[in-house]
Amino acid sequence: MEYVEFRKNYDQVISGLVNLKRRLDAYFEEILTKLEHIDRYTCRVKAPESAYKKYNEKYAPQSFPLSDFEDLVAVRIIVFFTSDIPLVRSALLEHFERVERSEKKPEFDDQFGYESEHLILVIPPHLKPEAGDEFCPPTFEVQLRTILMHAYAEPQHDILYKSTGQVPREIRRRLAWIAASCWGADREYEELRRWSEAIGN
Fewest Cβ atoms nearer than 10 Å: which of 2, 38, 79, 176? Predict the structure, then answer.
């Protein structure tokens, strides 16, 4: 499917996705205000270009399988400490049914790079549109990260996304060094958090 045709199909459902984003946004604000150490959260609708890229990688040459996309709408939650991630996950699972959980991290123990926890959750009935004429996907994605995981992931994505061809070895090593620094800093903050709690702060 060419992009023009894909975009035409996508434009027919974008208003439903935007409305779902608004409903999720309000619901997450209600859930997350009850939790500590939430730096911020954002809710987004997948851009047409990003959706088309995923379509080509995963679904082509099938027809437009919109209901198969698990992350047309996604929520990213940024927390202070690594130990906050399971707490936020548990809180979310009180409100949503989980389809899938995955930890994105380097394949080998001696590698450093992108890290994030991803959840695929079912859209509950009370967040779906009342009218049946508006598209609503069956699931949405949640990404859970610490501030430092995010501090690495976003600039790294921007640098690699704009690069063309093979990324030089020196650049990959420097990115790995930044990732390792963030990984170590996350663990130091976790230790300092435990110290602060031990002395009653």
Answer: 2
